[in-house]
Amino acid sequence: MDEFALIRALAAKLPPPGEDVMVPIGDDCAVVEGKGRMAITTDAVVEGVHFRRDTLSPPQIGYRAVAAAVSDIAAMGGHPAWITIALAVPGAWPLEDVVALYDGVSEAASSLGASVVGGDVVSTEGPLWMSITAVGKVDRPVTRAGARPGDVLFVTGSLGGSAAGLDILLGRRAGSPVAQAALIARHRRPTPRIAFGREAARLGATALDDISDGLASELNEIAEASGVRLIVEADRIPVQPEVTEYARALGADPLAYALYGGEDYELVGTAPRDVFARLLAVAPIVGTPVAAIGRVEEGDGVVMRRAGRLEVVARKGYNHFER
Amino acid sequence: MDEFALIRALAAKLPPPGEDVMVPIGDDCAVVEGKGRMAITTDAVVEGVHFRRDTLSPPQIGYRAVAAAVSDIAAMGGHPAWITIALAVPGAWPLEDVVALYDGVSEAASSLGASVVGGDVVSTEGPLWMSITAVGKVDRPVTRAGARPGDVLFVTGSLGGSAAGLDILLGRRAGSPVAQAALIARHRRPTPRIAFGREAARLGATALDDISDGLASELNEIAEASGVRLIVEADRIPVQPEVTEYARALGADPLAYALYGGEDYELVGTAPRDVFARLLAVAPIVGTPVAAIGRVEEGDGVVMRRAGRLEVVARKGYNHFER
């Protein structure tokens, strides 16, 4: 299989592009019909850093890479439209596994409502990597910088499951087989909160971020960008129930998975009280649980109340360049 | 330096974003004001495959990576607006060299009229790589598929210089020092033909492609996508004069550099005769030489007339996956 045959095999995996795609894969560029404001984001994954062959199958690698990029669009209050993919292939990867990456890419793009419109395929002497660019439409962008004193601090879904699932995949098994299976599934198949993000933007949320690096890191991002202090109630943080079971069986702190685990791709944000009340009402309609976990105050940093004591929550999580 | 400090150091190198950027680097996504039709392209470069540390300095690596992506926008008849960059950094690269990549990124973005609006920085155990996504505005896209029998086949600038420059950098020295310096400069600093591409689109060119893989490969792309035969006159192909000097000193065929060398980032295209006449008139205004090198006929494939004989020009050039 040569480069052109590989590109054809990858493109054949993809669903037909949407009606807003004038020139699809195969020319110098894709051409699309732009509409108003757009969100653009790029997210890269590297074998050995973001995944391993024994923790994710090729379709799972492809699915997660697209989901992670699209999650950034959701965190801006937008919805994804177009995706490009750069893919670097090492000689040691069988080409059928490379093509199988695109089963996951295709599934993610279809289910998230985006068209894969282009990319680049190159060889590398190093590990396999993918760089995903997602372009979406966004009417009212919600950055990290709008949190105001008095706002409610909220988070969607439940946290900690992805990191616990990864720990299990890396051999640290504990708890019931059912709980372990649920955590592994959570790691392998995140769901970007597109519909909730759009509602949050429409209703007037003041800040929004997706949880890729762990809740602690994202809270610090919002506090710093907005110039406010965030007060978190530890017992309100929605830790995934299986995480609690797993962590207790290990003798570990379940909350640490939620705070520092990352890759849950839930949304964390802030909103005035009346906006949050409307978000609570709309949450069941978009199928996304949401919970208030604290509030915004004047000041700086992130402070958590746990068992009656206050502690500072440091920005901690994966850092690529601690040299 | 940690990940956040590195990102700040990279962002500090960049010129201020354009007025159409509502949310710049630093949030989940960039948000931009879209306007009508847009071209999207992604282009990746990998150390050891697309460049080596001894052939390009870090700023040259950054400049060329951006120029190569923007060239795809030019080949669609568009002009670039926004760029995102995924960058993977191996432990062996000094961080000051990583930051210096962005001197070139910044220079390319400024000179080509684009804003760098985001990206991702990750670590890797393999070679350094960059994946560049460029999004541009395009009024009338010119694909590879519109060439029609009777059209003139044209090419901009001169060809072969980049590949000859690379050969010299890899130690294959020949010819005068002045010619060698010109060829090395040509390799290190390509110029995407944005203004010419836009004029070609506006005036009614029927096909357009940029020369990244060599003229032979791009001609075959156009012939195949358009369902036509291209007839090329060998003695009209504008080989860069220093390439002729260099190749003759080596005992090599200068034309082989133009046909198979690649990375010249000139444009090759087709246009009806009257459109080509207008392109000839506008070429000096946009500072881009253009030459007719043949014509479009019914049939398929690419045929070159050289010294009175006809030969088929095969698609040849760098192929990432010849296994």
Automatic annotation (TrEMBL), chains A, B:
Mg(2+) 3 binds at residues 28, 72, 210. Its EC number is 2.7.4.16. Catalyzes the ATP-dependent phosphorylation of thiamine-monophosphate (TMP) to form thiamine-pyrophosphate (TPP), the active form of vitamin B1. GO terms for biological process: thiamine biosynthetic process; thiamine diphosphate biosynthetic process. InterPro entries: PurM-like_C_dom, PurM-like_C_sf, PurM-like_N, PurM-like_N_sf, ThiL-like. Residues 26-138 form the PurM-like N-terminal domain. Mg(2+) 4 binds at residues 28, 41, 72. The keyword Ubl conjugation does not apply. It catalyses: thiamine phosphate + ATP = thiamine diphosphate + ADP. It holds the Pfam family AIRS. Mg(2+) 2 binds at residues 43, 72. Substrate binds at residues 50, 263, 318. Reaction mechanism of ThiL seems to utilize a direct, inline transfer of the gamma-phosphate of ATP to TMP rather than a phosphorylated enzyme intermediate. Mg(2+) 1 binds at residues 42-43, 120. Mg(2+) 5 binds at residue 213. Gene3D superfamilies: PurM-like C-terminal domain, PurM-like, N-terminal domain. Keywords: ATP-binding, Kinase, Magnesium, Metal-binding, Nucleotide-binding, Thiamine biosynthesis, Transferase. Belongs to the thiamine-monophosphate kinase family. This is Thiamine-monophosphate kinase.
